[in-house]
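Sample log: ArsR/SmtB family transcription factor.
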Amino acid sequence: MSRGPATVSQLAEPFGMTFAAVLQHLQTLEACGLIRSEKIGRVRTCRIEPGGLAPLADWITERRIPAERHLDRLGQILAETDQLSPKVRDQEKDEQR
């Protein structure tokens, strides 16, 4: 489908699956809004829905900034830990025991 519309038969051809199994997968993708299909006569043709991944991209964007902040803070903590002198690290280890 990345090259353009394709029939269910064309999509099923390279896989070791039954036509019905491929059709079931395609129906799931269509229900999720990732593809669109239309049936003309006995032939069902599928195509990628251009905006289908937009909700996923939005979800990732919403979570990226807070995750980056957490990772930046973790990097700062690790850098501070690396800068501690061996003597201070030994003292901390003794206190934890």
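Observation: The chain has two domains: 6-48, 54-96.
Observation: Residues 6-48 form a domain with the Arc Repressor Mutant, subunit A fold (CATH 1.10.10.10).
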